[in-house]
């Protein structure tokens, strides 16, 4: 199956949702290339980027599951190269 490279941009506005978010990321761990998290104390949020290499439907499912967590927003940006 063809895979795509993408970045998931995640904004966590409710820090108590971190465990639920990490559970979803762990479930998709085999597709994750790397991740970086930045706590932004001034605003009380965390910004996370997750690089993935996965089939497009897997990336969409992961982004959707993360975005369905209350207090968490997620968007996927895909590489144009296939």
UniProtKB/TrEMBL annotation:
Parts forming coiled coils: none
Pfam families: TM1266-like
InterPro entries: Acetolactate_synth/TF_NikR_C, ACT-like_dom_sf, FeFe-hyd_TM1266
Name this polypeptide is given: Iron-only hydrogenase system regulator
Organism: Roseburia lenta
């Amino acid at each position: 199956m063809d895979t795509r490279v993408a970045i998931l941009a995640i904004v966590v506005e409710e820090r108590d949702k971190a465990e639920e978010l990490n559970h979803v990321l762990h479930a998709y761990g085999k597709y994750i290339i790397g991740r970086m998290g930045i706590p932004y104390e001034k605003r009380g949020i965390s910004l996370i980027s997750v690089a993935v290499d996965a089939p497009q439907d897997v990336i969409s499912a992961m982004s959707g599951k993360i975005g369905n967590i209350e207090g968490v927003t997620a968007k996927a940006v895909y590489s144009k190269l296939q």
